[in-house]
Batch of 4 targets.
Target 1
Amino acid sequence: MAETRNIVILGASYAGSGAAHYFLKHVYPHLPKSSKVTYRVILVDPSAKWYLRHASPRAIASEELMPTKHVFLNTVDGFKQYGDAFQFIQGSATSWNPETRIVTISTGHGKEEQLPYHALVLATGTKTTSPLFSLQGTPHTDIQAALRTVRDQVSRAKKIVIAGGGPAGVETAGELGEMLNGSAGWFSSWPSHITTEITLITNSSKLLPKLRESIAKQAETYLNRVGVEVRYNTKVSSATGPSNGKTTVLLHDGEELIADLYIPATGLVPMSEYVPSRLLDGNGYVKNNPETLRVDEAGPMVYAVGDIGTYSRNGIMDIMDGVPVVNSNLKRDLLAAHENVDAKPTGPDRKWKATAAETQLVPVGQSKGVGAVFGWRVPSIFVWLIKGRTFMISESAVKDSLMGKNWEKEKAWDGK
């Protein structure tokens, strides 16, 4: 009977699904065919559905603008094309023993599964303070309930406070502002009639930390045009409530804001509770080699990709560039160890290099946006066309993401 070697990938969001598709398309076909050894990808995630979190700002604003069914995809549907080479387990990693090379998976109702691995890819990512912007390591039904609640609050709110000057905060403020207040006319900087007061709070001196000052100021201008006030150098100390439909937001200087709706759009927490502490940095991220993306201290053929790894700056480009690196090096490891599991590959590894150039697109409302691509500032219409028009949730784009079409072509590497 053939030995089955498990390639276990923990996490099925952008990084995990991407790593699985890339492996099955570009690594699996090149592994030796043998009657003694077979390989199988096992993708593990607490949620059976993938939440397209990049569209969360518009999903928060309105079911009509961004239907729930468009931002939750059935993970398994995208992998049926690979047949028996793929398996999905709905469950959460609760512990991991690098010495025995076993991950313990909780599959619910008190049941656990001991999952041995030949290779392991950690891609559990991060979660946001608010359940609106990301899955929280729980089933997708939790975030669907949170979206229903916030949409009901939005429909009745007269004062909204949003904390966070990054893309999530700016995009959410812009979506809510334009939907509730409309937009200013040609010669005005504010809407003629404010239906809902919206305040965006940031503890920084500028919005959008990854973009230059002039682009950040343009984002503020667009926010003002949809009735959003921006407050800089201000930190939220606490938020209590809701009580009687109101939330009290306490600022660092003692000022209190009373809001009908408070949305925290700050902070990322790595979902690494299952990882031995010796493999984590001081902030809870998995320590991986900044070039090969291996987790060197965890034994052979262990990798981290996406937000969970210390190499990452918590951006989509680090996933897009990291997935090919992980798979190229994993392919080298697997080929070397096919006959002798202790054998190491010869020659150079593929190395990850950070994309230093300024790259980020931030829609502000349904018709404007700011951003830069590889250091080049782009006009508002470009941001709208690429992202703001649909938040990249067209039928074809969603299908391509689900089926791994964006990984159809292998990213070339010269082996140096």
Target 2
Amino acid sequence: MTPDEFRRHGRAVVDWIADYYERIESYPVLSQVQPGEIRAGLPSTPPQQGEPFAAMLADIEPLIMPGITHWQSPNFFAFFPANASFPAMLGDMLSSGLAVQGMLWAT
């Protein structure tokens, strides 16, 4: 992935996340699938050639989202409080982008 592709796909991911939070209340709070259903919806072997990033992103809604417990939903009242925020997500992105191994002050 080139830096320009990273910018384009990164914007698409940020847009997807923002859209998700705008409609998070519309999802059932808990997973709606049985064990193995998500795996059954995926190919049995990895592709020989990569697919376009947009195709992968389009697979999230029909294949992955039915199996998600929406921890940040305002309708979820169990286990832990809602603890994600857009500033925290941006901080995670910066931390991942730097890929710092923070084991010692010198690293």
Target 3
Amino acid sequence: MFWNKRKAPKNQEANQPVNGENSILKQDLSEKAKYSGVYVMRLLFKEKVSRPASPALTDRLKARFGGIDVVSDTSGLVSFALTDHLVTYKDDKKVPSQLMLVECNPVQEPIGDAINRTQFWDCPDGVELLDSCPWQVMTSDFMAGGLPPLERADILADWLEILLDLFPQCAAVYFDASGKLMPADSMRENPYTGPLRFFQGGVNARFFNIQGSNDMLVDTLGLYALGLPDVQYHFRDLNPNDVVRHAYNTAIYQFENGAPIESGHTIGGIEPDSKWKCQYEDSLIQPSRVVLDIAAGEFASGRRNGEI
């Protein structure tokens, strides 16, 4: 499958995927998306910065998370155990989840693949901003994969808020799992609260035109990293901006409620009184992952699993 990605103009508002020049991308489902045992975020800088002293980090962490143990403190890496946020492993053994922070290093390879670089809807001039930041501070959680998704998302959002406060020079943040680039100030002004703050950078709604047809595709990328399904729409004759909003709303509902929607369920569509059928399927666009495919009623395109 080939598809055109329609680029938004520079003055386009966030999540308004219409108008502009086309670029052709190729489907490659050999790329597999996996539940992220380590969730990576990259703070990007135009100049090299120094890492805050460990006591400053420890004080901030204690204020947010309670019990904190310093696991490692070297020139290259500092890591902290969150003793009030435990993960249960085999034989009911409980181990603290951790947060890690690496020193500022040069960006060695371009960040973001060809597809991700066409999907920076929330970051005006995103590619230019990304390429103007030759320095990065990488951070992640560790041994946190067993936490409930909402708790893990809340920790990541809290940690990022702390870092953005301690690194005022940060120009942007890149989220590896969602392929989303956000200006640092947009993250500092996150409109969400609680665990939903994760959505500001951790979930990206993508938009594609299918080459040789009037079909379009919208999906989310990022929930899979927390062990939850992303959503997908293959459709025609709908305003893609409306579908993007529907995708975010559906993803938020799944996130907040532990993904209660099952195959065969229906949810409200965009049109009044419309019902759209849901089915878990393999994603149409990489990375390959199981998604909740939402058939947009009379506007649905393509075949779903089980259809002849």
Target 4
Amino acid sequence: MHNFRKLRIYQKAIDFAVEIYKLTKSFPKDEIFGLTSQVRRAVTSIPLNIAEGSGNKSNKEFKRYLEISLRSDYEVMTCLEIALRLNYCKKEDFKKLIVESDEIAAMLVGFSKQL
């Protein structure tokens, strides 16, 4: 078992979720049950699955949760691309968040390989 609160990837995922929540506050109100909800659920899934997976006794099971986190991260990237194309976010914000998302993906893959 791992102490998820001490994992750098967990902390980064929490920070990323906060940034996505701040960004989506400016999305159109008619997206509250659409893209806003989807990207928020996807981004919270990243740290939630890291935390849940860390409670497993086997590293194999923990890796499975890290893979779910990775897929959620890819989902966030896709939502950001859609938001950009709909002009819901600025290109600068998009680029910054995609870089962070890519970093999280790399960290998830790297951490999974270490287990």
